[in-house]
Structure formats: C-alpha cells, structure tokens
Amino acid sequence: MTDGPDDGAAEREGAVPTDYDGTAYPQAESASDLAGVPDGLSRLWTPHRIAYIEAGGVPSSHECPFCVAPTLSDEQGLIVHRGEHAFVLMNLFPYNSGHLLICPYRHVAGYDETTEAESAEMTHLTQTAMRVLRATSGPAGFNIGMNQGAVAGAGVAAHLHQHVVPRWASDANFFPIIAQTKAIPKLLGDARRELAEAWPV
Ligand SMILES: [Zn+2]
User: How many domains does the chain have?
Assistant: First the structure.
C-alpha cells in the first residue's frame, strides 16, 4: 500500500475499505469474473446505499455524519425519532436489519461527557428502540453498546453513538463467511419508515 494523498489507491490495491463505523464493505466483484466483456471496473452491489444516493451523497470526510443527520429531513437523514437532547437514526452500514444508533445532538466523544439529561434520554431512547423493534420485527435478542475511541472500534469516534442491534437466531447466516457480505434484507428507507411509524408519540 502506498502513502499518498490519493484515497483511492488503497482500494485499488486490494485493501478492504471500511465505512465510518468500522464495518468492512463487501468485496467488490472483479469485472473479469462476470459475463460479458471485462471493462476493468469492479462492481459492488449494495442496494441499501440508495438511501445515501437519494440523500444527495455521502457527507464529505471532514463533516461529522451525526452532526449532519439532524439538519436533514427524517427521510434523508434516516432519522427514526428526534428527542429533546438525543435522536435515533438507522445505521447506514447496518450489521443487521433494524440496526439503530442513539446519538446526543451535541458533538461529544465520551459517554462520561454527556449531561445527565443527555444520558437519561439516551437510556430512555434505547429502551424505546428495543420495544419498537420487538413490536415490529420480533428479535430474539439485542446487542447494545458504545465503542469509545477509535482503538475500541468506534468509526466516528468524535461523536458518541450507542448501537442497538436486533438479533435473530437465524441472522448469522453463511454469507459473511463465504462472501464477506452481510445480507441486509430490508432497505434502509423502508425500515426507517416502519420504525418511525411504530415509535410511540
Ligand atoms: Zn458530531
């Protein structure tokens, strides 16, 4: 891998690119493996990313996605619920269908930097997110947690976010093993609308 200003170099040289949350993108298909005349391009079929495309593109790398999201419409920002001190949004790069993030509006990195009002509302929103997910999709369990700092796996280390990941007994299928790809059966926009409509007022 070369050092240099060209951000595309690493991708072209075969390193697995990761999203802002640390999840590896699925491997792109080489054109030489596809039917037809190879054109030297790789293709990555990620239909859930239509939500980003429709939103007008990925925020540039110097913008914090969790500061930008609340400035957009619910649909564009993939926001499920806006509280007073914190909000709930779909993870753009979900580990599973219904993977939600609970963020304070304030750009703080550490859980210990939140005010009592912020941490109390994050707890309340986490519990409500669990209830809404149970009511809409009946998960058998949850993974809930906060990665604090890049060394601990936080992709956006500068802006605190709590993961709420619903789990089903059958969700750990063979796709991640054979294809390094997670099957996300529901499109993010559809999932956002379903959860927002089920969120208690
Ligand atoms: Zn931020």
Answer: 1
